[in-house]
Amino acid sequence: MKRLDDMRGFACLMVVAFHAVGSEPTLRGSLVGSAIQLLGYVRMPLFIAITGFIYGYRRDAQVLSWEGWTKRTSRLVPPFVLLTLVCSAIDWEAGRSATPIRSLFYGMWHLWYLQALAVVLIVVYAGERAFHPGRRGLWLAALVAAAISAGGLFGTVQILSIDRSFYLLPHFLFGVVLGYHGREGLAWPMRLAIYVAGVVALAFAAAGIQSGTPWAGSSLIGVAIGWATVLSLSRHMPSYGLLTGIGRFSLPIFLWHLPLAAVLSAVLLHRVHLAVYVAVLLRVVVGIVTPMVAVLLAERYAPGAIIFIGRRSPVDRSPVDGARAEATPA
Q1: What are the angstrom distances between the C-alpha of 191 and each of 1, 159, 160, 316, 330?
Q2: Cβ 309 vs Cβ 294: under 8 Å
Q3: pTM across the whole model
Q4: 151-174, pLDDT tens digit by residue?
Q5: Terminus-to-terminus CA distance in the chain, angstroms?
Q6: Where would you tag: which of 52, 56, 116, 238 has the fewest CB atoms within 10 A of its CB?
């Protein structure tokens, strides 16, 4: 499972870097800002595709059930509620309207992802109960989800982050397809088609960001880039100790990096005027290291507190299948 942890670590770095750079107005129109903006097409898609891959790899032995859905989502409720209160307090202190009750239903800051993940899993559960598709059916489901996302069918349904869940659903299902194919992988014509579509979409997205045209944010472009990135990393991601280590703490890093960066900026960076790139680097380091240290301390001194920091599912921690754990995911 090292490759998946490396992919998680890479996704973590992209998320933390995206928010660190995005919090600096002077960088938004720069080359670095434009490059970071392109990461928006692969940050969260990569996270959720990894979850889909693990599910697809185990699907024959363990199809998602209602009990499985509740187990997967219940571990997200404590940190979601706690972080909603923390983020609301930060907004209130900064003079912004803080409505924690409304945020529990709509997801504030980056917490929309937890809601969207829960909705994606319940859609998958319903699909499994109704159809239990095979390989072709999974491909069809992924393509239908991509069409729904591109058409914006649920684009205005913001409660429980349903709009964003259907943005992520094609990537989750693509991860399921890759995991279900397992060692066999995708046929080379299919891989080539996905890569070509991704490169073309990336060129359109980069041109659109520079020119400010609205189609740069098209969901269809996002699907093409996301699928090509997930496929490429699943086949060619090298193993680095640093990324592997970060990947093992991916959930607490994702949950806490943004509030930590906000507190750091308020307490230190706004009072000590550091160079912009030093401030960005400091946000990245604090956002990654602090949650890792918090988990290690909690494991040793207060194991019960881990559920509020962020605990990865036992399914995600264990090898996919002993002898096949290091198999190429695509």
Answers
A1: 22, 36, 34, 26, 9
A2: yes
A3: 0.87
A4: 888 888 889 899 999 999 999 999
A5: 14
A6: 238
